[in-house]
Amino acid sequence: MILGLATNGKNETAFDLFEEMEQKGPVPNGITFVAVLVACNHKTLLKKPWSILGKMSKVYDVELTIEHYGCMIDLLARSGQLKEAEKLIKLMPMKPDGAIWGSFLHGCLTHNAIHLVETAGKRLLELEPTHSGRYVGLANMYASNGSWEGVIKLRKMMTERRVAIAPSWSFIEVYGNVNKFFVNDQCHPQAKDIHDVLKLLKIVLMN
Fold first, then answer.
1. Cys-Cys link to 6, which of 1, 14, 16, 109 (CB 3.0-4.6 A)?
2. Which residues contact 176 (CB under 8 A, 6 or more apart)?
3. Which SS3 state, helix, strand or coil, does residue 11 take?
């Protein structure tokens, strides 16, 4: 329930449910804390995750796993706390995986932290050398900053490693009909209405 509320934008309700769970039971476990950390991904709850981590080990004797660290780094990176995210990556007792470096890189790109992109990108490409999306994201960042040398270097790496670019797409099923969308897709008969709703949702989420 906590994760369901969090992933549907009811972050504060999800956190309230966790606090009720602490008082009435059952005792939260490692999976519960993953859901709670996901719920903290909201501007009103950004100060909560550190206390949650403290409770895990000190109050509930729950061992931190790579999933918990991943949630924390994603939270920090999304909110622009990139130095804190970088420190946490270095302090992790286990080796960070592609998902963690991917979250950190996304935060760097979102907040235009060019000085950190190089490190994150290098680590990520070492872990996922055939993931086309990683190259494209980095290339777009280099291009937007006029660093064409970086773009050429990445394209060369893709050619040498035979990385194929797969078009990004998503789908949604409505009344039994599957609607599939590619990047910048304008072919759907209701494309204009869909984009208008997406713009409205973006405004609502920003506020």
1. 14
2. none
3. helix
Dihedral angle sign, alpha carbons of residues 29, 32, 36, 37: positive
Q: Which residue has the tokens 């890189």?
A: 105
Residue bearing tokens 């998503």 = 170
What span, in angstroms and rounded, lies between the C-alpha atoms of 185 and 44? Answer: 34
What pLDDT is recorded for position 94?
94
| Residues lower than pLDDT 50 in the chain | none
For residues 69 and 12, give the distance between their C-alpha atoms in angstroms, rounded to a whole number: 21
At 189 the pLDDT is 82
Neighbours of 128 (CB within 10 A): 17
**Cβ partners under 8 Å of residue 198, min gap 6:** none
**pLDDT tens sequence across 72-112:** 999 999 989 999 999 999 999 999 999 999 999 989 888 88
H runs (alpha helix) in the chain: 2-7, 11-24, 30-39, 49-58, 66-78, 82-91, 98-110, 114-127, 132-144, 148-160, 191-206
Burial of 15 (0-12, 13-18, 19+ CB in 10 A): buried
